[in-house]
User: Fold this.
Amino acid sequence: MALVLSQFENILFLDADNFAMKNLNHVFDTDIYKETGLVIWPDLWRRFTAPAYYKIAEIPVNLKQRVRYSYDDVLPPSQYTQDLQADFTTEDTKVPFHDLNGTIADPASESGQMMINKRKHFHTLLLALYYNIYGPRWYYNMFSQGTAGEGDKETFISAAHALGIPYYQVRTPLGFDGFHHDVKAYQGLGLMQHDFDQDYKWHQELLKKVHDNIDEYSKFNPKYDVDITYKKDLLQKNGPTKSDMVDVMFLHASFYKFDPRTLYDQDCFKTSKGEHVRGYRNQRRYGGFDFELFNFQALQDKLCNKDPAHRYRNFKYLNEKIDSEEKWNNVCNYIDDHVKYLESTPVSSLS
Assistant:
């Protein structure tokens, strides 16, 4: 509803626990945003939108035309499909429904960040609002079928797709930042989402490379494997590499959230022995920015400042959880100790 009522024409929507990791001054001036007016970032999962949705929304799906292989929409279908005239709905073809022309492409969407132009996509927002009003009862389950993160995340792309209004799906898979706990195994703390403009540009370069060598890439490859043939042999050799990555644009710090009471109660950023540990270790991907230290210093400065005149604790939800000076002292001691640990243990010393 806030998106519908906002008077801004261009909107960058971010969840409260999502952080911009680079300068965003240019984002509304990029070619792909001006062309489409809607940018959607990826989730981890394959798409689970029920085929019934396409019938309800009267979206035509060509059951005899495969146009991609999962997240590979660059190589021609003839490389991984021997019979392009087959009826791909039969069980023995084993072609995922969302590889067919007319469907929304893999992967699922992650709505912790979204860019939208209301002039281009006002009707998209109205239809998405309808999907959200009836989401808990109908559409959330129809779009995600009970899979992880079911909620509003697929309503925007589904609305734009149903209306035939262009949108851009970021191709670069999301990354994780986190650490290995000595008992709880790997703790994935934040989702790294990538620069959509850089993503678009290298995707265009890959399309051009394939187009310029179409005879070579059109040949059927019985050993085609999306992770090897596309991701390793084409993408990593010709697209972003370890020395030329698509920048991290957003860090969605969804677990743990920087809620001081929860961090203290659950001994977050600590080993089972009570020793402090650095959680966010991808500082190189953030241009040297120490994300974890920045947030803990903010908590320290605003909540635990030694000077009461510069301390602000008037948050109702915190005061309900931390209802005594003793509890505040415990929380602040935890924050102070973690700041000291981070300052004495830069990321470079861990590699």
The two ends are 45 Å apart (CA to CA). The longest strand covers residues 185-194. The chain has two domains: 2-176, 256-350. The longest helix spans residues 325-344.
